[in-house]
Design brief:
203 residues, Arc Repressor Mutant, subunit A, transcription, transcription regulation, DNA-binding, TetR/AcrR family transcriptional regulator, 9 helices, Tet_transcr_reg_TetR-rel_C_sf, mainly alpha
Length: 203
């Protein structure tokens, strides 16, 4: 059942109202992201988001003028790259960046969005998607540079090509097998830096 989530009883406190609005926003953007993951941007409509989120179209329209604003807000919610945990060794730093890329491609935005970018269905969406991937790629590049400085990777490594290779490794595994095994990150670390083991100094 779709309900008008902005309608609050007079007795509801302002704090509860703010929490309710935040919950409604989360449901709306969560639905947009779920549709993007599965189908790409062309399937995002106010009607499809309302049906999946359970939030009334009138409520959605009070927040977003159209589906373009819905997509933009959903992508903006994924634009900031997570902060790396402190105290990781070089091996775990490299693996963490692989997981960062994997999550971006599989869970945060999904293969439906990847397909849309590869066919350039929506140029604005393609640009926003690349911004997200590049923000995570920048984190990966910084980790690889640190690994070079630590002697774990060869000194003449082309960082940009290495990052593209890491992204391509995930896409290649998905295209060939329809899934990516949980061991993927470990296997790639061993391939990229065969001499690197857990516990390697971080600096």
């Amino acid at each position: 059942m779709v309900v008008d989530a902005d309608v609050e009883p007079a007795s509801v406190s302002p704090r509860r109202s703010v929490k309710s609005r935040a919950g409604t926003d989360s449901r709306i953007l969560g639905a947009v992201l779920a549709i993007l993951r599965a189908h790409g941007p062309n399937r995002v409509t106010v009607e499809s988001v309302a049906a999946l989120s359970g939030v009334a179209k009138t409520t959605i329209y009070r927040r977003y003028a159209n589906r373009d604003e819905l997509v933009e807000a959903a992508l903006d919610s994924q634009s900031a790259a997570p902060r790396m945990p402190d105290g990781l060794c070089v091996y775990d730093r490299v693996k963490w960046t692989l997981d960062l890329l994997r999550v971006a491609l599989s869970s945060d935005i999904g293969m439906g969005s990847v397909s849309a970018v590869l066919t350039d269905q929506d140029p604005d969406f393609t640009e926003s998607f690349r911004d997200i991937i590049n923000s995570r790629s920048q984190v990966a590049a910084e980790v690889l540079r640190a690994a070079v400085e630590a002697g774990a990777l060869r000194a003449d490594l082309d960082i940009d090509t290495a990052v593209s290779t890491l992204v391509g490794s995930y896409l290649g595994a998905y295209l060939r097998h329809g899934r990516v095994d949980e061991t993927w990150a470990d296997e790639v670390v061993h391939m990229v830096c065969p001499g690197l083991e857990r516990g390697s100094a971080a600096d």
